[in-house]
Amino acid sequence: MDKPKVLIIGASGLVGGEILKTTESMGQEIVTLSRKKLISKNQDTEEIIINFDDLQLSDIPKVNHVYIALGTELDTSELIYIKKSRRKGFRKVDYEYVTKIAKMAHGNGAESISVVSAVGANKSSRNLYLKTKGEMEEKIISIGYNKTVFAQPGHLLGKRLLKKIRPEVPIMEFVARILKPLMIGPLEDLKFIKASLVAKSMIKHMNRPTDKIVRLKYKELVDI
Questions:
Q1: Furthest-apart CA pair in the chain: how many Å?
Q2: Helices (H), 96-147
């Protein structure tokens, strides 16, 4: 059977880059959609450079699977409260771009989609970040893909290329390592997790029979 053709949006980011590396190692036919050229990719990987504000249906190739790892980089405090001056830009990227691409790809024949969301995503949340992620999930489900996979990780661990590391991040990660054994029950989903595990779990669930709608939390993300 022919290997699936996949579209990756956000391949320059932490999870998106891991999705790209893993799918390339599997020999899948790959197209990336991004605003600027990638630093590293296989020669056979097709790269489309676009302006997301001007995205047209003709920019979306015909593929089997779609991976979206697109999101605004937020400070730790903004996961709790996003300043009014930042809300429009956050909404544009994390909801409008994501759902627009998902709808266009489905209209162009894509059968399944996997999207990086967030732990605690809930359209009814009073937290703007979690509410937006929940609304994004609901909108993508309504599009009608044969299979929809949402990864809902906590804080992501991994090397962030060309990104300035915020001073609080190493402290957070150090404390999280100490507290990890105590994070059981409902707290388990908040555990920090390697981006590579998130990517591999998303790919695994896209390439095997599963329920039509799948949400991957910490336990499922590490079970690869």
A1: 50
A2: 98-107, 128-143
pLDDT in tens, 27-73: 999 999 999 898 888 889 999 999 999 999 888 999 999 999 999 98
Nearest 5°: phi and psi at 67?
A: -115, 125
Structure tokens at 208: 């095997």
Q: Which of the four pLDDT bands, split at 50, 70 and 90, describes residue 1?
A: very low
Helix axes 98-107, 128-143, angle to 10 degrees: 10
Grouping H, G, I as helix, E, B as strand and the rest as coil, residue 57 is helix
Whether residue 219 contacts residue 188, with contact meaning beta carbons closer than 8 Å, is answered with yes
Q: Which residues is 48 bridged to in the sheet?
A: 33
Distance CA(121)–CA(98), nearest Å, equals 15
The 10 Å CB-count burial string (b at 16+, else e) for 155-194 is ebbbebeeeeeeeeeeeeeeebeeeeeebeeeeebbbbbb
Q: List, in order, residues 6 or more apart from 105 with CB less than 8 Å away.
A: 7, 60, 63, 66, 113
Residues near 221 by Cβ (< 8 Å), separated by ≥ 6? 151, 153, 193, 197, 198, 201
